[in-house]
Amino acid sequence: MMRKRLFWRIFPPLVIITIVSLAALTWYASTALRQFHLDHVALDLEAQAHLLTPQMSDLLDDGNPARLDSLSKQLGSRAGTRLTIILPSGRVIGDSEEAPETMDDHRDRPEVRAALAGAIGRSVRFSHTLQKTHMYVALPVRSDGKVICVLRTSRPVTSIRETLRTLYDDLLLGSMVVALLAVVAGIWVSRRISRPLEEMKRGAERFARGDLDSRLPVYGTEEMAALAETMNQMAAELNDRIQKAVQQRNELEAVLSSMVEGVLAVDNEQRIISMNEAAARLLGTNRDRAQGQHLLEVIRNADLERFIEKALSSSEPVEGEVTLRSLGERFVQAYGSILTDSQGKEFGALVVLNDITKLRRLEGVRREFVANVSHELRTPVTSIEGFIETLLDGRSHTPEDTKRFLEIISRHADRLGTIIDDLLSLSRIEQEAEAGTVELEETQLESILLGALQICEVIASERQIEIQLICSDRINVRANGALLEEAVANLMDNAIKYSDPGSPVTIEASQSEDEVVIHVRDKGSGIEEEHLSRIFERFYRVDKARSRKLGGTGLGLSIVKHIAQAHGGSAAVESIPGQGSVFSIHLPRL
Ligand code: ADP
Asked: Which of 298, 329, 355 is the last residue of a domain?
């Protein structure tokens, strides 16, 4: 719909009202003026007639009609009025402007008729004799109570027309001036009204664009000011509510995004309403891109789909386990419940996903560990049992055999002891590292390495292995001396064990900007690439038989790794099969 500007609403009615009222005023004024003028002329004519009546009646009594005519002409020209004397028969016997004999019977003239009837006759009409509109006033002239003639006075009334025409012209001119003034006034008034409205419109547009901090100027008429104030109040209120809503949303967002659990909301059609970062990570998707998409477009996972269907159709909260494969295999514990709006209408489901992969892996590791421990312990225990049974089988054994059997039993018992010692040591270090109770103090690294060297001296000399120590006495570390000594000794023990006799072993400590590294190098058998990633695991051995023969438990490197971690560092290995290995312990620099 075409909308008119305010100006066109105000201006035309203003002009029309002005013109109509001016026209009405003009009409009324001209009618009243004309009436007033006619009344005035009539009274004037009547007064003149009254003045002349006695004279006329005297002359008539004298019976001198010629005298009457000349008197009429004389008085008429003096008074500027036409005088006519008419006998009751209708014959004109005197006229100030015409010769009476040329004039026709005047009995029919309305004013004459009225005067003959004894009243004062009055008439306005066009005079054919004088070719002008005249006002006629006729007065009866009486003698002895009888009307003996009629004295008629008349004057042209065209002058009033002219007067009125000038008035009309003036009024027309005046109207035009007033109309012009009305235009100016219309423009001014509409501007005055529309300017604050325009400003309000602009302000409202600013509000609509979301700039609720801006304010409308409060001025103009009372209504305008009140409207501006109300709109300002509305904007402030709206701003307040929006701020609150935004704050609440941010708080909720902050809570959701800081949650470790993935939170996912879907509607009844399984379209994603929202999800937090953790959920996006678990599902291997982008949060913003996933919003509004169907779950199937985001992740194709039958487990999750089934679970969400169950959550959507169940009135009770549901719980289940889902395996996700978007980021490798991940085990997720899922909890789902129906989402309802303020009217209690169900519109979707909320699913909380808890990544239990680590837990699962730990459980696996623990199971494997228990199995490994049992297996490791089983072998010596079975041997011990076997030899004890042999000794107790009732048969007689030679003292040499008995001694040999007892030596074997003792060796296996030692092995059991070593395994148990290593296990205890490992669990103690793990526990202390977890509880943060490993006591660390600033120590000179060289003294620790010398301590480890001493521990390995015997076995090194047995295998004719020379150990070279390269370490500056200025390197200090924050360490638990006994533990670090144990770790280095383990590495040296391995280096000696897995090297051929006479092969050299080097311990080298170096310091960089942010760490201290202890390298234990050997030129032994080396380790195949495929084992390197698992070598620090408990009971992991490249060659089980060889390890066992060398008295290894498969726990040494695991102990090294845990000790390094308890110091805030790490353990690493590099190796080339057939050429040797380099094991290193990285410690944070002081
Ligand atoms: P073990 O008690 O068997 O030595 P470790 O945990 O100390 O157990 O070592 C695990 C495995 O890593 C060993 O069985 C061995 O196969 C390999 N290994 C460790 N150190 C070396 C080394 N310096 N050279 C070659 N292989 C090594």
From this structure: 355
Q: How far is the CA of 542 from the centre of ligand 1 (A)?
A: 7
Q: How many domains does the chain have?
A: 4
- Assess whether the C-beta atom of 581 lies below 6 angstroms from ligand 1: yes
Residue 495: CB within 6 Å of ligand 1?
A: yes
234-275 confidence digits (pLDDT tens): 999 999 999 999 999 999 889 988 898 999 999 999 999 999
Give the residue carrying structure tokens 């003294």. 447
- Cα 79 from Cα 74, distance rounded (Å): 9
Asked whether 535 lines ligand 1 (CB < 6 A), one says: yes
Task: Report how far residue 40's alpha carbon sits from residue 33's, in angstroms, rounded to the nearest whole number.
Answer: 10
Q: Among residues 355, 379, 406, which one ends one of the domains? A: 355
One domain for residues 399 and 534:
no
Which atom belonging to ligand 1 lies closest to the Cα atom of 499? 24
Q: Is the CB of 580 under 6 A from ligand 1?
A: no
- The pTM of this model reads 0.53
- The whole-angstrom separation of Cα 326 and Cα 225 is 62
Q: Which domain does 115 fall in, by range?
A: 26-160
Together in a domain, 62 and 39: yes
Nearest to 585 by CA among 350, 575, 565, 42: 565
Tell whether ligand 1 has an atom less than 6 A from the beta carbon of residue 547: yes
